[in-house]
Amino acid sequence: MKRFPGAVLLSVTLPLWCGCGAGASSDRPDPVERLMATSESALDRARGEDVWEVAICRIPIGATDPLYAELDDRMEYGADEIVEQLAPVSEYYERWSGGRYTVRFVPAAADVSVLTTETSQQCVDRALGQSSPNAQGVLVVSDAQHAEGAEGGRGGPGTSCDDDCSATLTRRYVYVGASDFMSVWEGVPPLDLIEHELGHGLDWPHSSLSAESLDGVVYDSPYDLMSNSAASRETDATLRHGPGILVVNLLAAGWIDPERVVRWWPDEDSRVIDIVSRSRLSSSESIAVAVPIDGTTFASVELVEATGDDAFHDGDFVLVHRIEVVGAAGFDRRQYLVSGELREGEEWSGDGFTVRVLTMGDGRARIEFSEDA
Ligand SMILES: [Zn+2]
Predict the structure, then answer these.
(1) How far apart are CA 213 and CA 232, in angstroms?
(2) Distance 364 CA to ligand 1 centre (A)
C-alpha cells in the first residue's frame, strides 16, 4: 500500500523532556523528542473532528488501468450507504484515541467517473476537485474490484497545512477498490483496510515482524493496524476490525500524554517499571517504556492485552519494537518487532540491555530493565 509524498517538517519548539531517572540527563539527544518533532504536522489532524468525504468512483466495463480486474460486476452501493457501513470505523478510532479523535464520514455531492482509458488516480483527482471545503480528506471507493495481487488501496496525509486544511488544497485522500463492499459481504464489510489507510492519513508508517520484512515491503505483523491489518479476520472470519495500534503511533498522534511513556536509559541502574496495556487510553498510568539506543533510535516496550480489537490473540504479552526516527515525516519512520511475544517469566536481550517480564495479568505488566554485563 503506497503513500504519496506530503508532510513537511515544521520547525517546532518542544518542552524539555524529563529523563526522570538516575543517570538521565536532559542534554543528550532523545529519540522520542525527535519522534514528537517529526509528528508535529499530523497532531492537529489527529485531534477533534476529521471530516472525510466519501466519493464513489464509477469505473466503466473494459477499463484499461491494469489495477482493475477484468470483471463485469460492479459494487452497487451509493456514497450514503458506504457512509452507513463505515460507522464502526469511527468507533474504532474513538476507542484508540480515548475519545480524542472523531472520524466523520459524509457522502460526496456526486459520484465521479473515468473514461475506459483513464486511471484510478484521475478518479481520485476528480473527487478531490469536487470536494466540499469542509472535507479534510476524501475517501474514494471504486465500484470495480482490483486485479489479483494488486494493492487493496492507498492513502496518505497530503501536504501540511495551517489554517485551511481542505482536501482540495492538501490532496489528502484514501483510495480503495470495491472488494470489501461487494454484495457477498451483505453490507457488513471488512473495515481493516479503510482503518489502515486512514492511519496513513495521520502520517503513520508501516511496521513488520523484522527489519528484513520491512525492507522487503512485507507487512506481516498481527500486532499493528499499520502492518497485517487483516490479522483479526484471518484468525476469526467474523471479525471486521484491524488489530490495535502501536504505542509509538498513539504517541505520535497525541492520543497519549508523553509522560505516560517512561524513559529508561541503558546506562541507568536496573529498574522495575509497571505498565498498563496499550488499549487503556483513558488511564493516566504508564503505558510503555522507551529505551533510547542512540539519538534517533529507541526500543518501545508495550503490553498487548487480548481484549477488544486485540482479542484474537492468545493471551497477553509484552512486545519490543525497534523504532528508527529517520526522515522528516512520520511515514519515513522505521518500526519493526525485535522480540517475540514475551510472557510472564520470559526475557529478551538486544542493543546491550535486557527486558524481563516479572509478572503479568489484569492488563498490567511488571517489567525489569537491566544493562547487559
Ligand atoms: Zn499501508
Answers:
(1) 20
(2) 30
Ligand 1 centroid, distance to 312 Cα (angstroms): 21
d(C-alpha 217, C-alpha 115), whole Å: 32
**Single-letter amino acid code for the residue at 313:** H
Ligand 1 centroid – CA 173 distance (Å): 13
Q: What separation in Å is there between the alpha carbon of 201 and the centre of ligand 1?
A: 10
Q: How far is the CA of 25 from the centre of ligand 1 (A)?
A: 37
Tell me: the pLDDT tens digits for 306-355?
A: 999 999 999 999 999 999 999 999 999 999 999 999 999 999 999 999 99
CATH of 46-202 among 3.30.70, 3.40.390, 3.10.20, 3.40.630: 3.40.390
Residue 227 CA to ligand 1 centre (angstroms): 7
Q: Which residues contact 7 (CB under 8 A, 6 or more apart)?
A: 41, 42, 157, 159, 160, 203, 328, 329, 330, 331
Q: Which residues surround ligand 1, an ion (CB under 5 A)?
A: 1
Residue position matching grid coordinates 497477553? 316
Q: How far is the CA of 225 from the centre of ligand 1 (A)?
A: 9
% of the chain exceeding 90 in pLDDT: 89
**Per-residue pLDDT, 16:** 41
Closest to 141 in 3D by CA, of 99, 102, 89: 89
Q: Could you tell me the distance, in angstroms and rounded to a whole number, from the CA of residue 348 to the centre of ligand 1?
A: 28
**Is 6 a residue whose pLDDT tops 70?**
no
SS3 371: strand
Task: Sketch the domain layout of the chain as residue ranges.
Answer: 18-39+205-373, 46-202
As given in the structure block, the three cell numbers for residue 343 are 510472557
106-115 pLDDT, tens per residue?
999 999 999 9
The dihedral built from the CA positions of residue 59, 61, 65 and 66, taken in this order, carries a sign that is: positive
- Distance from the CA of 197 to the center of ligand 1, in angstroms? 6
Quote the ligand 1 centre to 143 CA distance (angstroms).
21
